[in-house]
Amino acid sequence: MVFFGFLFQHGAFDGHSFKIPMAVSMAVLAASIPFIVLGLRVSAREDVAEQAQPASMWPLVLCAGGMLMVMLGIAGISETRYEALVALSVLPLLALSIPFAAGSVIPILSRIAPLADGRVQRLRMRATLIQLLACVPTLIIFAASYKLSLTAPRAFVVFVPYLLIVIAAGAVAISGRRLVAAGIAIVLVTLFSVSAVVLRNTPVSPRDYQGLSRAINARLQPGDLIFTRRSHWAYTPVFYYLDHDRLVAEDFIDALRTAPRSRVWVLSFLREPPTDEMAEALSGYQIAGRTTALNAEAVLYLPAR
User: Fold this and answer.
1) pTM for this predicted structure
2) 287-294 long-range contacts, Cβ below 8 Å, gap at least 24?
3) How confident is the model at residue 140 (pLDDT cuts 50, 70, 90)?
């Protein structure tokens, strides 16, 4: 699935060093389309054949309510995409209203245009839950990504199982012969292996927290301190990769009074200068070096001699 990542890649990610050639991505996408189309047809026939009594709506209502709460929670911690995420949070409830709206519109349509009514009925028989989950969210995120990065590209993994089910159904449908099955298996193993390598070399964030932390940790000396901003969304992820005992997010002056000869690393992920409190604490220090990564920087300060 890494090969499809270019569909959802936002401009903030363009700075990473490893990129999949567009021709390769488009070739993989083009090769997958026949499997997707065939898989959609196969899953539709199987679902129609196995239709049972209509299920209760309560599980769907509870599921939609849970999705609404999750989306609102994500919007609550979002810094720049609050309005867009709040607007998207109503989609589960709108999806639940589709059957009721269709139930009202179809009788009217059947009287006005009988031919169109027949086509709608056939579409309802073919549109299964797996098909919708495999295609609709993917297309919505793809279309919206041209104007706004609604979520990190890695969040697409939520929809991967459904798309893989459809692709697998299409692959099974044409793999009746052993040679064809062996060829498909070889191609899939190759793609999965290459995807693992690509994923390892592709940042999952517009800021390379892990890369910057790795560079800092390689140059740390005993007694070094790391100055960072407190409770800031752009800085919090780096805490997973650094020694917590070295992090200082407040009382910078007191920290240097306790360790007056310590070297100090100042983190920056938004191209911002040190805060006024940091600058005051470092008034007797001088810049001795810099370490950079994708949209990330750490400046090393040494006590003035």
Assistant:
1) 0.53
2) 288/263, 291/212, 291/215, 291/216, 291/219, 291/265, 292/212, 293/207, 293/208, 293/211, 293/212, 293/215, 294/15, 294/16, 294/203, 294/206, 294/207, 294/208, 294/211
3) confident
